[in-house]
Amino acid sequence: MVRRxxxxxxxxxxxxxxxxxxxxxQSLHTQLREAGSPIGLATVYRALSDLASDGSAxxxxxxxxxxxxxxxxxxxxxxxxxxxxxxxxxIEADAVETWARQVAAQHxxxxxxxxxxxxxxCAACSAEAAAGRDPGVxxxxxxx
Length: 144
Description:
The protein has about 140 residues and is of the alpha+beta class. About 40% of the residues lie in helices and about 20% in strands. It is built from five helices and six strands; from the N terminus they run H-E-H-H-E-E-E-E-H-E-H. The strands form two sheets. It has a three-stranded antiparallel β-sheet with strand order 1-3-2. Strands 5-4-6 form a three-stranded mixed β-sheet, with no helix packed on it. Strand 4 and strand 5 form a beta hairpin. The two termini are about 30 Å apart. Residues about 140-144 have low confidence and may be disordered.
């Protein structure tokens, strides 16, 4: 299905491109509104869904909420994501790719697809926790 590239979709794409790490539709909508855009929240949700469907955005679920991040279409990758500050690192996982193909084949599946996101604490948040401080309190959750 070919989607029209409307000004609203382009505005969402540009806002997503300028965001650090994964963001929610609500925070992207707020960012757009603060910049003077009249775009509605439902339109932001639709545009993000379209961008994720065509591979222009990564999407993940965190605490029941969909979060999005701009990515390069056509590149298959996985993520390491800090549970505290949201820092995200794209990783290659050849062993996961091999495992997924083997498990699918063992069960008679073809054209298997998968998503792997590994959640943990980044080095900075781990250091804060090891020092007895509450990770993310001094850094905030806006880093990505």
